[in-house]
Amino acid sequence: MNPLAKGIRDYLALRRGLGFKLVRHEAGLKEFASFLARKRSSHITVALALERATQHAQQQPAEWTARLCVVRGFARYWSATDPLTEVPPLGLLPYRPARAQPYFYSDHEIRKLLRAAKTRPSIDPLRPCTYHCLFGLLAVTGLRLGEALGLRLGDMDWSEGILTIRGAKFGKSRLVPLHTSTCKVLADYAKRRDERFGARAEGYFLVNLNGNRLDKGEVHRAFYLLSRQIGLRAVDASRGPRLHDFRHRFAVETLLRWYRNGEDPKRRLPILSTYLGHAHVTDTYWYLTGTPELLGAANKRLEKRWEALNAGSR
Q: In the annotation, is 278 catalytic?
């Protein structure tokens, strides 16, 4: 194994030890190492990194930027070992990936969606209950879709009302407490599911018509259909509210509740960050600029602090 290949292996092992999965990074770095070998170069240079990133002219600029970012991360690490390594600077490519603008669901819209899910005709009598349960769970817990679909029967502690989320985005497990009303809905679904498929400790909690794990693509298609049915999306719209926006709403609602109760959200942000399964508190800060209502609450808190400071200085 040449030094560069060993460096890539060690870099991936180090990052994975911190909880990152890096599936795309591994493939991208191996391709880049092969590219350097074809170029007969044993050192990373900005020119070669840029050439590799933009090699396929038919690809979107977003793909070029993503490929270059993968190399940049490794180059920063590898430069400590190889002083001839050049780290591609930020902004080398013009494309700036933008986060999708979140949609803030109203309580009325969520109720309409859940009602539509529960009453939608289906050849599978369990299917309406499954989607009603899934969409409701996403709305009240802020779970990622993959986390909800990955829940197994043994992940629910009925006596304590706690879900265990295993193998989440960054490989960390966490506990998610549930309201008694949520537990009641989940228990009702579990009873219906067990009556049909039997209780299997290792089985998935939310299942398809065969008793297996729900497919993500199938879930998204069902959500889009129901969204159009209740008017959340236009019939011919390719974009609109997403399932992930339930997670955004949960975070914003939590922050708003803290503001309204006179608590300091920034002090409590690590709690929300842990609950959501974020790797860093900085990942949660994005929600602080989420909605006009949240910004208004933040401004009111700031005004009160200024008033208190001014009163104290008189």
A: yes
CA distance 115 to 112: 5
Catalytic residue check, 248:
no
Task: Give the span between the Cα atoms of 117 and 114, in whole angstroms.
Answer: 5
Q: Which of 112, 127, 132, 144 is catalytic?
A: 144
Asked if 113 and 64 sit in the same domain, the reply is no
CA–CA gap between residue 228 and residue 234 (Å, rounded): 6
Active site residue 77: no
Q: How far is CA 249 from the centre of its chain?
A: 13
- The answer to whether residue 287 is catalytic is yes
User: How many domains does the chain fold into?
Assistant: 3
Write phi, then psi, for 175 (nearest 5 degrees): -105, 140
From the list 247, 248, 249, 301, the catalytic residue is 247
In terms of Cα–Cα distance, which of 93, 131, 110 is closest to 223? 131
Compute the distance between CA of residue 164 and CA of residue 157 in angstroms, rounded to an integer. Answer: 8
CATH number reported for the structural domain that contains residue 202 in this entry: 1.10.443.10
Range of the domain at 145: 107-229
Residue at 103: amino acid letter: Y
Choosing from 244, 257, 260, 300, the catalytic residue is 244
Question: Which parts of the chain register pLDDT below 70?
Answer: 18-19, 57-58, 95-100, 167-171, 200-202, 280-283, 285-314
* 131 tagged catalytic: no
280 is catalytic: no
Q: Which of 169, 174, 228, 242 is catalytic?
A: 169
Other C-beta atoms within 10 Å of 2: how many? 11
The model carries a pTM of 0.67
